[in-house]
Design goal:
single chain, 305 residues, alpha+beta, Butyryl-CoA Dehydrogenase, subunit A, domain 3, Nuclear Transport Factor 2, Chain: A, six-stranded mixed sheet
Length: 305
């Protein structure tokens, strides 16, 4: 392996992380990083002071350009556009504070919130607030002055402030709440389902125009509980088989729901520690394909052991 390949492979996880948080889909992020590799492979890098600075600049600028195009396309998307979730693994022992911080910058709630920002503001905010870049580095990456970048980040934080106000919920608390909800859904216990949902809870669904989904936010504990109950009733009549698995999605506990053995949705949850306040339900088959493949590999590994 030559030095250029070694440098790129060493930095690939960081580049992939930036691209995913910028674009919100794994496929687009992987394609962008591959494009960066081709540019890196062809570039004269001997005179570079920092391979990392060069690569981060290229991946960020390409992501800004692609996000501008994507935002235009998403204006014509059928229903709600939600990010593509990822299965994430436990990386080993960590404090509750570290787990919470790690989940917060990749959670589905956070990625959905980033959609509020213009591409350049999203890049500046992520580089500074998530990847801890100095303002000098942010300025160099975006080709702007440090003062301008400080303004951009400040405005981005103000834009996101309302959406990020939430009570810190420990992973253990979130797990207990979600496992109780999953058990109630498996039993078809409408009362328990409703009790675990905040009165003003929201459910947002992305079908991508390929499978049915709500074209508006489903509001209220009773309506959301009825949705889960309706599916249980069909399963209890033998019309379909229903299975739910608790998994780590984007650093937080979520649910995979299987119907007739096929992954039907990946569900991410927000809570206040006592009740579920919002559900993001990804049903678009294109955004479920990688999760289904990863889950099949995980299950095969567990069965083999």
């Amino acid at each position: 392996m030559d030095d250029k390949t070694h440098d790129f492979n060493r930095l690939r996880p960081r580049l992939q992380a930036i691209a995913y948080r910028m674009l919100g889909t794994v496929a687009d992020a992987e394609e962008l990083v591959q494009d960066v590799w081709l540019r890196w492979h062809e570039a004269d890098t001997e005179e570079l002071d920092s391979a990392e600075a060069w690569l981060v600049t290229v991946v960020t600028r390409l992501a800004i350009d692609r996000l501008r195009t994507a935002k235009v396309q998403r204006e014509h998307y059928t229903g709600f556009w939600l990010p593509e979730p990822q299965l994430t693994a436990d990386d080993g022992p960590a404090s509750p504070e570290e787990l919470l911080e790690r989940a917060d910058d990749i959670s589905m709630a956070f990625l959905a919130l980033l959609e509020r920002l213009a591409p350049e503001a999203r890049a500046a905010f992520l580089l500074r607030e998530v990847f801890d870049a100095d303002y000098a580095d942010v300025a160099q990456t975006l080709g702007k002055s440090e003062a301008a970048c400080r303004q951009i980040v400040s405005r981005a934080k103000a834009q996101l402030k309302d959406g990020r106000v939430r009570q810190a919920v420990s992973p253990d608390t979130h797990y207990k709440l979600l496992s109780g909800f999953a058990e109630a859904a498996r039993r078809g216990d409408f009362t328990a389902l409703q009790a675990l949902l905040a009165e003003d809870a929201e459910l947002i669904s992305d079908g991508g125009g390929k499978v049915p989904s709500f074209g508006k936010v489903l509001l209220g504990a009773a309506r959301i509980a009825q949705l889960y109950l309706a599916l249980w009733l069909r399963a209890s009549k033998g019309e379909l088989s229903l299975r739910m698995e608790l998994v780590q999605l984007n650093g937080q506990w979520g649910l995979l729901r299987f119907i007739d053995g096929q992954l039907e949705s990946a569900q991410s949850f927000e809570s206040d520690g006592e009740r579920i306040t919002r559900v993001h339900t990804q049903r678009n088959p294109d955004k479920l394909r990688r999760i289904a493949q990863a889950w099949a590999v995980t299950k095969a590994g567990s069965n083999a052991s």
